[in-house]
């Protein structure tokens, strides 16, 4: 999915002058350079937050560039406070103190957390700091509404396995579901579940039960869809095209109908977004309401999925279930200059001020503003209207291997140009420079 989003505008103009070109891009075929070794969820290279949640080991300089991922924790997250939420620019990997990291504008309202999307913004995304490797996750939520407004509740792994719920704001009776193996789009994987009543006015429980053999989507406790691993064998590649790696829970609201998005995305999202709608007039933003999220980890005596160690890491670029290691490796950085292979970099506790003046990007997408693509959900195929391409995954790379994403300025050469808008925005974003500045500011606070 591409989440195509809007330029950040004037706030970044000053910063943009510092670094004209944005962070280096990364794909399976083009790994990150040594000095900016971590490939973010959005397919860009950097240090610090780039090496934490979402860091794709397959596209990073080396497998250990990414910081190990905190292991699954059974927990009920009451969404009646933001005490254990941190903006991505303030988080260094300690999941014992922080439950959610995010970008955008989460707000507390009436004992719930609202994910908001003010006019012309790119919305808000929250991710758990721990990773679930099979298990059950349930979210009690009310969706947003309005043409072009998308609400998402997904599981998303660092190698872009994905299991989702997505809601488009023009159809308040349908929960769209989908799954992806390593972000590879398959137009046949989506499925709709009809929701009784309406998704905007009432809370409903949306649930994903995920085992090594089966994915079940349940709405209000009732099974709406099941997908078996046994149905996903890929004979060409001799593998299961089935989500199988540790995943963060991500909640988001994003403007599928932003004018910078490709037509297929806008159509799927229900048309162009109206920044002058009643919703905006009445509240000042579009919003989705989250009341509670609960995670129940899968437990086995032998890996995978013991949920017993501290962290997961990958020991092979294949990124399949057998390449995930249950380990006790450390998950924290000392500063946003750190990486998986230099976790203490920028440590100011012994030496006082950091001496480094590196100009590497440290926060994907820049500061508290979400990257121009928000994870979660799927893209519609512009031709047949069915869902395709993984949101985050699709957005993340100009990969040669199947995202059908066009990376140049000219959409005409793409078979599926839904991502063009996002790329265009990307170019004007200048987020990298902003990231540097925020990175240093963050450093001084530590
Ligand atoms: C999708 O389904 C159609 C019809 O069953 C089939 O012909 C096509 O090969 C499928 N596509 C993929 C990528 O599996
Ligand atoms: C799901 O519902 C949407 C309308 O909300 C429709 O456009 C889409 O084709 C449906 N997908 C499937 C797989 O039935
Ligand atoms: C197997 O994987 C390849 C590469 O992702 C893909 O192009 C192909 O459609 C897959 N085959 C099936 C039957 O899904
Ligand atoms: C990986 O998944 C396959 C299919 O579920 C399973 O047979 C195998 O035991 C798994 N391997 C590991 C190491 O988890």
Automatic annotation (TrEMBL):
Asked if the keyword Nuclease belongs to this entry, the reply reads no
Membrane-spanning segments: none
Q: What is the E.C. number?
A: 3.2.-.-
Enzymatic class: hydrolase
Q: Where is the signal peptide?
A: 1-20
- Presence of the UniProt keyword Glycosyltransferase in the record: yes
Location in the cell reads: Membrane
What does it catalyze? Random endo-hydrolysis of N-acetyl-beta-D-glucosaminide (1->4)-beta-linkages in chitin and chitodextrins
Spell out the residue ranges making up region: Disordered. 299-425
UniProt xrefs under CDD domains: GH16_fungal_CRH1_transglycosylase
Annotated Gene Ontology MF terms? Answer: endochitinase activity; glycosyltransferase activity
Domain GH16 per the UniProt entry, residue ranges: 62-277
Residue ranges annotated as compositionally biased, kind Low complexity, are 348-359, 376-402
Chief place of localization: membrane
Query: Tell me, which GO biological process terms does this entry list?
Result: carbohydrate metabolic process; fungal-type cell wall organization
- Tell me how this protein sits in the membrane: Lipid-anchor; GPI-anchor
**Can you supply one Gene Ontology CC term for this chain's record?**
fungal-type cell wall
Active site: residue positions:
162 (nucleophile), 166 (proton donor)
Keywords of the record: Cell wall biogenesis/degradation, Glycoprotein, Glycosidase, Glycosyltransferase, GPI-anchor, Hydrolase, Lipoprotein, Membrane, Signal, Transferase
- A Pfam family in this protein? Glyco_hydro_16
Give the protein's function: Dual chitinase/transglycosylase that plays a role in cell wall architecture. Chitinase and transglycosylase activities are coupled. Required for the polysaccharide cross-linking at the septa and the cell wall. More specifically, transfers chitin to 1,6-beta-glucan in the cell wall.
Q: Which PANTHER family match?
A: GLYCOSIDASE CRH2-RELATED, GLYCOSYL HYDROLASE-RELATED
Stated family? Belongs to the glycosyl hydrolase 16 family. CRH1 subfamily.
Q: From the Swiss-Prot or TrEMBL record, give the protein name.
A: Crh-like protein
- Supply the source organism's classification: Eukaryota, Fungi, Dikarya, Ascomycota, Pezizomycotina
């Amino acid at each position: 999915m591409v989440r195509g989003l809007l330029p950040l505008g004037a706030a970044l103009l000053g910063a943009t002058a510092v670094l004209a070109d944005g962070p280096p891009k990364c794909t399976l075929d083009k790994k990150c350079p040594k000095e900016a070794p971590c490939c973010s969820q959005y397919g860009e290279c950097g240090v610090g937050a780039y090496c934490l949640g979402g860091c794709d080991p397959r596209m990073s300089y080396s497998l250990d560039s990414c910081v190990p991922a905190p292991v699954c924790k059974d927990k009920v997250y009451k969404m009646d406070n933001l005490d254990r939420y941190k903006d991505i620019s303030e988080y260094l990997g300690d999941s014992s103190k922080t439950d959610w990291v995010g970008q955008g504008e989460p707000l507390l309202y009436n004992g719930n957390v609202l994910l908001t999307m003010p006019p012309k913004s790119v919305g808000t995304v929250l991710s758990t700091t721990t990773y679930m490797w099979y298990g059950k996750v349930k979210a009690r939520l009310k969706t947003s509404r309005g043409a072009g407004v998308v609400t998402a509740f997904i599981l998303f792994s660092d190698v872009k396995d994905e299991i989702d719920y997505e809601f488009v704001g023009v159809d308040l009776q349908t929960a769209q579901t989908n799954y992806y193996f390593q972000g590879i789009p398959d137009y046949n994987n989506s499925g709709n579940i009809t929701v009784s009543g309406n998704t905007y006015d009432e809370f409903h429980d949306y649930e994903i039960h995920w085992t090594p053999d089966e994915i079940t989507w349940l709405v209000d406790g009732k099974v709406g869809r099941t997908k078996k691993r046994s149905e996903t064998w890929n004979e060409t590649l001799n593998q299961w095209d089935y989500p199988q790696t540790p995943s963060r829970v991500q909640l988001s609201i994003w403007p599928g109908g932003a004018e910078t998005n490709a037509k297929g995305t806008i159509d799927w999202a229900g048309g162009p977004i109206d920044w002058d709608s009643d919703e905006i007039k009445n509240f000042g933003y579009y919003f989705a309401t989250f009341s509670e999220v609960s995670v129940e980890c899968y437990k086995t005596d032998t890996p995978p999925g013991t949920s017993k160690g501290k962290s997961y890491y990958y020991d092979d670029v294949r990124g399949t279930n057998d390449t995930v290691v249950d380990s006790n490796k450390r998950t924290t950085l000392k500063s946003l200059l750190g990486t998986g292979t230099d976790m203490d970099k920028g440590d100011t506790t012994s030496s006082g001020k950091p001496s480094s003046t590196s100009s590497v990007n440290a926060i994907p997408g820049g500061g508290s503003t979400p990257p121009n693509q928000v994870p979660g959900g799927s893209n519609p195929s512009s031709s047949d209207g069915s869902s395709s391409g993984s949101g985050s995954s699709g957005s993340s790379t100009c990969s040669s291997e199947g995202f059908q994403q066009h990376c140049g300025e000219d959409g005409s050469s793409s078979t599926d140009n839904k991502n063009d808008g996002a790329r265009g925005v990307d170019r004007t974003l200048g987020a990298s420079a902003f990231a540097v500045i925020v990175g240093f500011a963050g450093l001084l606070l530590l």
